[in-house]
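By convention, each integer encodes one residue's backbone shape. The lines below illustrate.
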Amino acid sequence: MDFTLSVEEAMLKESIDCFMLDYASRRPASLAAPHGRDPTIWRSVIELGWLPAGFSEDVGGFGLGAVAEILIHEGIGRGLMVEPVLAATLAARVIALAAPEGRCAALLAPLFSGDRLIILAHDEPEARGDVQLVEAHAVRDSQGFRLSGRKAMIDSAPGADQLLISARIDGADLALFLVEASHLAGRMRVCRTIDGRAAAEIDLDGAVFSASALLAVGPQVANAINVAHDHAIVAAAADALGAMESALAITAEYLKTRHQFGVPISSFQALQHKLADMVVAIEQARSIILCGVAALSSGDSAERARGVSAAKVLVMTSARLVGAHAVQLHGGIGVTEEHLISHYFRRLTAFAIRFGGADYHLSRFVTSQDGL
């Protein structure tokens, strides 16, 4: 697979880099916004075309593919952006793969234009990254569907216009329900993640949806969720890569300016070794992310699972090393709210548990190998 940037991808990267330079001064506004989304910044993201960039043209995207999404999320990680780019593209991919053809364009157009924010509510407390584990279920009744179950830590749900909720109908077929977020506002327990994103747990017990809320049902729903999550995992890994790159740059600069015994501590060989370890870990992460991108284009679901889970585990390992070394090399100031390196450490810590941890992905990797 050729990873040389095309003209369009190079232009996209340039625009991302320019935007993220400006975002640093605007990030406090995003963190202070009630739902972690500053309207001005979000409008800029929409105008830059980040949401549809990786989608095919037949669903209203720009057709730039997975590489474009990696470039976008690497930039987002470098700047610690908290706006729901990943959450929105995750929902968009599920819609593109599972929604009936007649409704797909009608749902994606306002999402890509920023007029509506749709968020996928799929993760559950017991799943721990396993997207196939869905215990929420819906029972048909005279009013439509009555639901039960819970959704856990749904990224950007508090600021969504609509929620795409997964549940099993009568305990069997997996289905997607599209509902107004306001319909479930009283059922959300809103919180912030360790890295500043808005999230919510949703209690579905006793919730009633009309029959028209049913968007899709059947095997295509499970497939859409699996594929969309794999794309999201690789994108999140790119986000972590961007955060690691910035953490390394900040740490290296700090070692040059911090003096002990009359010399910069960057001259200490032991500290140079730690910086070298960080560089190696980042390059390993970059390489495995490219393998993950290649796996996304595979028509073999087992091969895709192997590549994506391998990327998740290795990037997680690199993120822990880089985050720990960055904080250690800064000393006590590295864990304070005021110092930026603590925010990068939290971003990398959040990645370790987002979309499943090492145990799940190692098990998934081994299981997919068994099919060879």
